[in-house]
Amino acid sequence: MTLMQEFTKGLWKEMPPFRLVLGLCPTLAVTTSAENGIGMGVAVVFVLTLSNILVSMMRHIIPKAVRIACFIVIAASLVVSLELLMQAYVYSLYEKLGIFVPLIVVNCIILGRAEAFAAKNGVAASIADGLGIGLGFTMALTFLGSLREILGNGTWFGMNLFGDAFEPFQIMVKAPGAFICLGLILAGMNCINRWQAHRTGTEPVSIGCQACGASCKSCQLQMAMPEDAKKGV
Amino acid sequence: MAGILKMIVVLTALCGLSGFVLSYLKTVTAPAIEEQVLRNVQGPALASVFAKGENNPIADRHVFKLEDGREVTAFPSKQGGKLVGVALEEHGAGYGGPIGVLVGFNVANDTLAGIGTTQLSETPGLGMRVKEPSFREQFAGAKLPVKLSAQGGSIDGISGATISSKGVIEAVEKADALYKKLKPELVQFWGGK
Amino acid sequence: MDILTIFVSAIFVNNILLSQFLGNCPYLGCSREKGVAVGMGAAVIFVTVVATLFTWLMQHYVLDPLKLGYLQTIVFIVVIAALVQFVEMFLKKMVPPLYRSLGIYLPLITTNCAVMGVALLMQRKGYDLVTSLLYAAGYSSGFLLALLLMAGIRERLDTCRLPKTMAGTPIALVMAGLMSLAFMAFKGMAQ
Questions:
Q1: pLDDT-based confidence at A204, cuts 50/70/90?
Q2: Which end of chain B has a smaller Cβ tally under 10 Å, C or N?
C-alpha cells in the first residue's frame, strides 16, 4: 500500500470506532458536545502518531517477550506529556475531559495500532497510519458529539441553532443518549456495508473487534466461546 | 541468557529515558500550569470576592510560610495602591468531597469581603447551590465569626444541603484563623494602611 | 458516609458502566453468556480492589512525598499491569481451581479502563483508604451487575429474529442505552 492509502484507510475503511469498534469508553463519555469530541480526538492523534513513530523506530530493538510492556511504557509517557501540555495550554478542556485524558493509556486504539501496525512497518508508513486512524477517530467523535449536542442541547459548537422555541431531547447529552446514538450509527454503518457488498457481490465487512488485531485479546475470548453463543453475531 | 539481559537493558533504558524526558517537560511547563490553574480555578472565585479591586490578585499573589511549615498563598486586592483586602483559600468537608472556598477579608475592619468556591463536587440542585449568588452574597460584609441561622447566626443555609452549607462555614472559619495569624505579615508585606 | 450509601451510590446511582462509561470493551466482548459474564465480573472485582489498594498506597506514600504527582498515570498503569501478572502467577501456583475459573480473564484486565478508572477516580475525589476500597468494591460489583444483566438479555436476543443490520454490537449498545435509562431512575437515592 502507498502512504496515501495507509493514511486514507483510517478515514473510512478502518475508521474507529464506527468500523473498528475500538476506544468506546472515551467515545461515549466525552461526546456531550462537538467541541469535546474534537478535543479528545486531537489528544488521541497526538498520542497515537507519536507512539506509532516511537514503536516503529524501536521495533528491531524491543525483545518480543516484553513488547507489550514497552508499548505501555511508551504510551504512558506520551500520555503524561500530553497531560502536562494540556494543563499548561488548554486547561479548561483538560478539566472537561477529566479522567479520560489519563485513560488514553488503556485505550485499545493505541496498543492495537502499536501491535498490529507500527511494530511491523516502517516509520513513514506508521506516521501515515497513526495520523489516518487518529483523524478518523476525531471525525467520528466530532460527528457523534455534534449529533448529541444538536439534538440534546439545540446548539452546535456553542452556537444556538433553533431559537428558544426548541425543546431539546435532554436525554441525548446524558448517558443513555450516548449508547443509543452510537448503537444506531453502528447499525447505519452495517447497513451501508451490506448495501456495498450487495452491489459488488462480495461478503459484507464485519464490524467488531475481529477486524482489529489488537492486543486486548477480547477477541480470543469470543472465539473460544461455543458456536451457538455466536449465532447472534 | 543474552535474551533476558537484552530485555532488562531495553526496559530499563526505556523507563530511564521516559523519566528523563518527562521530568524535563515538567520543569518547562510548571510555570504555565501554575498560571493556568490559578486563572481557571481561583480566577473566577477571586473575581466574585473582590468586585472592585484595581490590581490583578493572581499576578500579585505571595506565598507566606506558617510556623508549622505550611505554605499559604494569599491574594491581595488593592485600591489606589493601598491594600484593602486579602483572600485565602481553605477547605471544608462537604457531602461529595472537600469544598474549597476562597475567603476574602476586608483589611480595614476584619470583616468578610466575600467568598467564592474553588472546588465543589456536591449534589447538583442541592449542595451545588452553595455557589449561587443568593447564598454566597450573604457573606459579603458579614462580621466574623459566621454561623448558620440554625445555630443562631446570620447565614441562611441551603435547605436540604446542610452538610454542604456547614462545609462552607467550616472553610470560612479555618480561613479566619489563618487570617488572624497572618495579618501582621500580610499588612507588612503589601504595606497596607 | 455509611457503607450502605457508598454501595448504593457506586452500584446503582453511579454505575461505572452505564453512567460513567468505563469498561465498555469487555462489556461488549464478554456479555454473550452468563457464565463468561460472571467470570469476567469476578476477576474485575478482585483486581479492582487490589489495584485500588496498591495505587492508593503508591500515591500517598511514594508519589505525594516525592512531589511526583504528575507521574500518576504512568505509575498507575505499570502497577496495574504488574499486579495482574503477579495475581495470575500467584493463582496458578497457589489456588489452581480459582485460576481455572478466572485465569483466562486476567490478561484482558490490564487494558480494562474500569480498573484504572476507579483507581484514578479515588485519587481525584480524595477519599481515604477505607472509603476508596469500599467504593472500589462497589463500583466493580456494579460492573458485574451490569454485565450479568446484559448477558441475560443477550442470551435471549440470540433466539430472536433481528434485522441483520442491528445484530451484534449495535443492538448491544442500544440495549445498554435502555438499561442506562432505567438506572437513571436511581438518581436521587444517594449521591
A1: low
A2: N
Residue A222 maps to a domain: no
Tell me the ipTM for this assembly. Answer: 0.88
Does C177 contact A79 at a Cβ distance shorter than 8 Å? no
Chain C contact set for A183 (CB, 8 A)? 169-177
How many domains does chain A fold into? Answer: 1
- The DSSP bridge partners found for residue A159 are A156
Q: Looking at the domain assignment, is residue A189 inside a domain?
A: yes
Residues from chain B contacting residue A91 (CB–CB below 8 Å) = 33, 36-37, 39-40
As a whole number of angstroms, the longest Cα–Cα distance in chain A is 62
Confirm whether A171 is domain-assigned: yes
The answer as to whether A223 is a domain residue is no
Q: Which residue has the higher pLDDT, C133 or A16?
A: C133
Is the sign of the CA dihedral C150, C155, C158, C162 positive or negative? negative
Q: Which residue has the cell 466525552?
A: A30
CB C169 within 8 A of CB A21: yes
Whole-angstrom Cα distance, residue A47 to residue A20?
18
- Local confidence band at C191 (pLDDT 50, 70, 90 cut-offs): low
Give the strand pairing for B71-79 and B82-93: antiparallel
Binary contact (C121, A99; C-beta < 8 A): yes
pTM of the model: 0.82
Helices and strands (DSSP H and E) totals, chain A: 9, 2
pLDDT (0 to 100) of residue A233: 31
The answer to whether the Cβ–Cβ distance between B26 and A84 falls below 8 Å is yes
Chain C residue numbers with beta carbons less than 8 Å from the beta carbon of A73 are 74, 78
Q: Is the distance from CB of C92 to CB of A105 less than 8 angstroms?
A: no
The CA distance from B134 to B165, in Å, is: 13
